[in-house]
Amino acid sequence: MMHMQRGLALLLAGVMLSGALAGCSASDAAAQAQPEGTGQVVTLDDMELDMTPLADTPALSTVLSPVASGALVAAVTQSDIDYSNTKDGYVMARWLGGGTTKIKVQVTGPSGTTYTYDLNTAGTYETFPLSDGNGSYKVTVLRNTSGNKYAVIQSVKVDVKLADEFAPFLRPNQYVNFTKDSKTVAKAAELTAGKSDELEKVAAVYNFVVTNISYDKDLAATVQSGYLPNVDAVLAKKKGICFDYAAIMTAMLRSQNVPTKLVVGYTGNVYHAWINVYSKEKGWIDGVISFDGKQWKLMDPTFASSSKQSSEIMKYIGNGSNYQAKYLY
After folding, report:
1. 11-15 long-range Cβ contacts below 8 angstroms, 24+ apart
2. Tell me: the pLDDT tens digits for 125-144?
3. For 74-94, how does the pLDDT look when each residue is reduced to its tens digit (9 = 90+)?
4. Looking at 31-134, which runs of residues are DSSP E strands?
5. What residues contact residue 22 under an 8 Å CB cut-off, 6+ apart?
6. Quick one: which of 278, 279, 320 has its CA closest to 297?
7. Residue of higher predicted confidence among 289 and 142
8. Cα dihedral sign for 13, 14, 15, 17?
9. Rounded distance, CA 195 to CA 257, Å?
């Protein structure tokens, strides 16, 4: 176990160094980006429109803040797509047309999976992860025309070469939204103070979340399409739906340089959210947080908290076949 922990610490140090040295140049990315035609009308299905999962030594924080640096921008009158930093695992978009009409951003990666997001109309950039890793992506901004009909305002294709595979899962994005000033980041630093390796940090964050945050049944009954976790609000209220549980843990761990995926998918027939973390010996561990010397335990903070970690639920969590990932953030 100690050998594995030291290996993980060395791995993550290497990740940060390689992130600073690797990646394609701005000129290369510019040559690879291809603007697409506009004016096309598409229909978004119900899954794309509503993807809110509802199922029941002082440590230092390092927040790798996304920046719309403006080096590479696809721009039209009503919107911008900034793809200056794709090597760091994200693109950014903003709507400049004002109004109250629904605006969407779609990101389709090399796997063919399309991620659909709401985009604010305040003219501020939002961050969207490149979860599929290296390859060709299509990023599209759409404006609602009626019902589920959306007009394509702009679209750009970009070939992505990440600085490292962890880049999309160490930074804030629209679903895991935090800054260096977030109370959630400060709490993570407090929880991990004096802990020298990443697995100890993971355990500290996990134990805090499952013992201090309860499931918000009222919110689950009233939540609307487009709901986004506010990690500082969840921390203050100590309540949330499963999306909130996963987002706050992901924010805490990323701020401590632990590569973490927020996963949205299914447990049985229920749309749900959980998190995965990275281990050198195991690679990406799907839904796992703790090791008891014999086996890993799947890491689903919502079920572990709401069930008070009963033996029946922990057995369910420990069965990977009960989880089907659909989206990674």
Report:
1. 11/278, 11/280, 12/198, 12/257, 12/258, 12/259, 15/164, 15/166, 15/170, 15/257, 15/259
2. 999 999 999 999 999 999 99
3. 999 999 999 999 999 999 999
4. 34-36, 41-43, 73-75, 79-82, 90-95, 103-108, 114-118, 126-129
5. 87, 163, 164
6. 320
7. 142
8. positive
9. 13
